Design the sequence.
């Protein structure tokens, strides 16, 4: 109760800080379209070799620093021990560092002098030949809980199957997209060949549409491939997590899932090769189109040189006889020239065929090399799966054999321990008798010290209890003082609750103040505060808080009706006019603050009484009195009595709360 009063006497403040941070990161990745030149393969090969070399160098560098990592590499990677021994040398044995001797600091504790205890004569220790009980301890690994392992395997299998299903859907979508891309590229090549062969009757719109369709499907293909690669990476991540977890590392689904992931990668790479092959074939038709277009442009230039004034592309124009003769002569010359070129081309045909065959052989070799790389990659991944499957099978056999050996070792160790225990029991019985005798002597000494220490503490407790009597009396007086102050505050706020009217509810404060005087006769501060109470409050008391609120409602109503009556007063007409105007003034609910700035020269009576009403409803009589003191004329005269009574209530309540705070501080000071 006293602490509650102390908390009520202090001001409280709360601050709340709301902080919301949202971070959204979006990473969009795409695979670039497959290149079509041999330089891209060389760059990829160089980049792959560089990355592999950097990875191998980093692995060897870390293995030279961390022997455990080197041991892991040598046991998991085939032929890795030969490479590490050749590059880093043999493993160096760790130098054993002797442990530092432990030391302890003893604190000196002052204790009373022990009482003299008669020491018994010491007996000669019994000599017993020690028995060597040191034996190599074999740690038997504890088996994990089968239920926990089964639950972990079920959870992992469900997660792995869900990942496999999601990856399979994406792979099927990517395969379908790549097949559509191959079909679109082949369709574009066929339409391009038809348009070139058709000459002037060619429909190039279909060629453009097929090209746009092929490019659109290529973009969809790349997006689907990137998405499927991401799902394959997620599958590999789940597989890696399963390998790290000892509970699910032996699950047969791991190897099947790894084999499936390798198969998915191989399918994507194989379809990429088909897309590249289709694009190479389309590129040949593009070259064919360029040659046809070039020959037609050359023929148009020659005709333009012969007939500069004739529009060759015009449909309705007619040629003259001279122009026709010139055109026929040029055609004969061109035919002779083409015959000679045909003869030369027939001679050079074998060379051109050889060159074309060489180019086709190079393209086929590149595709074959890419297919070989894909097949090597697939075979390597399959070998990794097979090695892991063999390792898993061998590990199972090793674990069974190790368990049998450990059982035999544990049985032999148990027999050895039984023999040692029988021998040591005899030695223990003899040593225990001596230890019991020494312990009894030590316990007697310790008991004597504890008794003397307890007597010292008891003496200190008696001294503290004797000095605490005065503080207890002070604490009781502070409690009585605080209760009397609380009664005083209740009397000021609520008065005589059984009173029928305002005057009857005013409760004299003389009785409560006399109780406080008696409780704090020697407290000069309390006596001075009590002397400030007005005599009227001692004999009659003050108006209660609720009575002041009720009276204010009447004051508010009358002041609102007479708001237009100034200090000079007025006749019946002025009062009637003020009353009528007050009827048209709407009292809208508003919120005011004690920190609001008020222009006393321009503020009107309605705003003053509205502010006062808000403060009275909020229980802030202090600010209500300050605002009402701005009233002038008839409203100010009517509110004068209420202001005086409220000031008297506030002054009396302030003195009472001051006594309550002093009582709370006095009570806290006396608490121990």
Sequence:
């Amino acid at each position: 109760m006293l602490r509650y009063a102390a908390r009520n006497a202090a001001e409280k403040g709360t601050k709340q800080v709301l902080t919301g941070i949202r971070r959204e990161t979006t990473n969009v990745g795409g695979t670039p379209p497959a290149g079509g030149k041999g330089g891209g393969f060389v760059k990829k090969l160089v980049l792959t070799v560089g990355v592999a070399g950097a990875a191998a160098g980093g692995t060897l560098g870390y293995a030279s620093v961390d022997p455990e990592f080197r041991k892991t590499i040598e046991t998991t990677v085939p032929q890795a021990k030969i490479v590490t021994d050749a590059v880093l040398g043999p493993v160096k044995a760790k130098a054993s560092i002797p442990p530092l001797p432990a030391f302890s600091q003893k604190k000196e504790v002052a204790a009373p002098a022990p009482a003299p205890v008669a020491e018994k004569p010491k007996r000669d220790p019994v000599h017993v030949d020690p028995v060597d009980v040191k034996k190599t301890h074999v740690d038997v690994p504890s088996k994990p809980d089968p239920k926990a392992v089964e639950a972990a395997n079920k959870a992992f299998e469900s997660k792995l199957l869900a990942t496999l299903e999601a990856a399979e859907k994406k792979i099927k979508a990517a395969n379908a997209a790549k097949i559509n891309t191959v079909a679109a590229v082949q369709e574009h090549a066929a339409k391009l060949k038809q348009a070139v062969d058709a000459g002037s009757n060619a429909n190039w719109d279909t060629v453009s549409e097929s090209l746009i369709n092929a490019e659109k499907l290529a973009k969809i293909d790349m997006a689907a491939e990137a998405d499927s690669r991401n799902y394959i990476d997620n599958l590999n991540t789940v597989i890696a997590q399963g390998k790290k977890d000892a509970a699910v590392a032996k699950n047969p689904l791991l190897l099947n899932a790894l084999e499936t992931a390798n198969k998915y990668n191989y399918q994507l790479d194989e379809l990429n090769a088909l897309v590249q092959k289709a694009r190479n074939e389309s590129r040949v038709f593009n070259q064919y189109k360029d040659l046809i277009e070039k020959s037609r442009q050359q023929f148009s230039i020659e005709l333009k040189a012969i007939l500069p004034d004739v529009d060759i592309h015009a449909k309705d124009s007619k040629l003259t006889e001279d122009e026709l003769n010139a055109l026929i002569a040029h055609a004969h010359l061109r035919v002779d020239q083409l015959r000679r070129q045909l003869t030369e081309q027939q001679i050079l045909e074998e060379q051109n065929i050889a060159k074309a065959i060489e180019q086709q052989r190079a393209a086929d070799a590149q595709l074959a090399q890419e297919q070989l790389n894909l097949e090597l990659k697939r075979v390597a991944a399959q070998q990794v799966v097979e090695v892991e499957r063999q390792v898993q099978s061998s590990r199972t056999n090793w674990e069974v054999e190790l368990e049998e050996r450990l059982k035999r070792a544990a049985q032999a160790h148990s027999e050895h321990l039984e023999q040692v225990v029988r021998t040591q029991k005899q030695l223990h019985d003899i040593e225990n008798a001596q230890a019991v005798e020494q312990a009894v002597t030590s316990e007697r000494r310790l008991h004597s010290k504890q008794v003397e220490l307890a007597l010292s503490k008891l003496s200190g407790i008696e001294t503290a209890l004797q000095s605490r009597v005065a503080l207890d009396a002070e604490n009781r007086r502070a409690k009585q003082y605080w209760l009397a102050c609380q009664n005083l505050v209740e009397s000021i706020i609520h008065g005589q609750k059984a009173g029928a009217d305002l005057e009857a509810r005013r409760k004299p404060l003389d009785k409560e103040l006399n109780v406080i005087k008696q409780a704090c006769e020697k407290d000069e501060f309390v006596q001075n505060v009590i002397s400030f109470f007005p005599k009227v409050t001692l004999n009659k008391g003050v108006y209660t808080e609720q009575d002041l609120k009720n009276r204010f409602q009447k004051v508010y109503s009358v002041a609102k009706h007479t708001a237009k009556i100034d200090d000079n007063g007025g006749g019946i007409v002025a009062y009637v006019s003020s009353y009528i105007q007050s009827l048209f003034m709407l009292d809208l609910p508003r919120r005011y603050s004690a920190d609001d700035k008020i222009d006393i020269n321009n503020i009107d009576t309605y705003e003053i009484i509205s502010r006062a009403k808000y403060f009275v409803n909020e229980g802030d009589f202090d600010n209500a009195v300050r605002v009402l003191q701005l009233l002038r004329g008839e409203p100010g005269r009517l509110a004068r009595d209420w202001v005086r009574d409220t000031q008297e209530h506030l002054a009396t309540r302030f003195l009472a709360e001051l006594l309550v705070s002093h009582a709370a501080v006095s009570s806290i000071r006396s608490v121990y």
About this structure: Residues 1-39, 93-121, 130-138 have pLDDT under 50 and may be disordered. The radius of gyration is 54 Å.
